[in-house]
Write a structure and sequence with these properties.
single chain; 6-stranded parallel beta sheet; 7 helices; alpha/beta; 33% helix; 4-stranded mixed beta sheet; Rossmann fold
Length: 189
């Protein structure tokens, strides 16, 4: 994986423009970080062929098709739940569409992370995600899970559980396929 550091949203935007060829096919995973930094607006600018799973009126089947088409995208953009000091990406996902595309498929994956997601090791990463990230995301998604009221994970068996796929990415066979951009700010959760 290849790493970059940028100070803020302005530098991030320039780095993204440098890494993504205009006219290329771009897909995204759910990410508050991409929304907060204005990257969603950039990829909706018309300069890219955006597989927009958020467009108004999209059906469930159309969204599933976008998930499948994301594997053939030139670029997949997302964030990570935690990034360890060893450079490991730790993610928990609901249906696996984000982590699956991170692992395999798109020509390149660009992960944008605020400094708040940096942790010492995988143990801290899991603790961060279960006791902070997942409850906030479940609440954002209006899920009826114990963590939305408790504020921490109890490893529930709820039908609406969003903690289904636990993935650690340490390396990739395709050198520099994954690019991690750390932004010197608190972003997302």
């Amino acid at each position: 994986m290849k790493g970059f550091y940028v100070a803020d949203e302005i530098e991030l935007r320039e780095k993204i423009k440098e890494l993504i060829r205009e006219g290329s096919i771009v897909a995204v995973g759910d990410s508050m970080t991409l929304v907060e930094t204005g990257i969603m607006e950039l990829i909706r600018s018309g300069k890219y062929q955006f597989l927009d799973k958020y467009r108004a009126g999209i059906t469930r089947e159309e969204k599933k098709e976008i998930y499948r088409r994301s594997f053939g995208a030139d670029t997949f953009l997302c964030s990570t739940n935690a990034l360890t000091a060893e450079g490991e990406l730790y993610n928990i996902d609901g249906n696996g569409s984000r982590v699956a595309a991170m692992i395999y498929g798109p020509e390149q994956v660009i992960i944008v992370s605020g400094v708040n997601k940096l942790v010492k090791n995988l143990e801290e990463a899991e603790k961060r995600v279960r006791n902070y990230v997942a409850p906030l995301d479940a609440k954002r998604l209006n899920k009826n899970t114990p963590c939305t009221t408790l504020g921490y994970c109890v490893d529930c068996k709820s039908e609406e559980r969003i903690c289904n796929d636990f993935v650690v990415i340490k390396r990739q066979f395709a050198k520099d396929r994954i690019k991690v951009i750390i932004v010197g700010k608190q972003l997302g959760y």
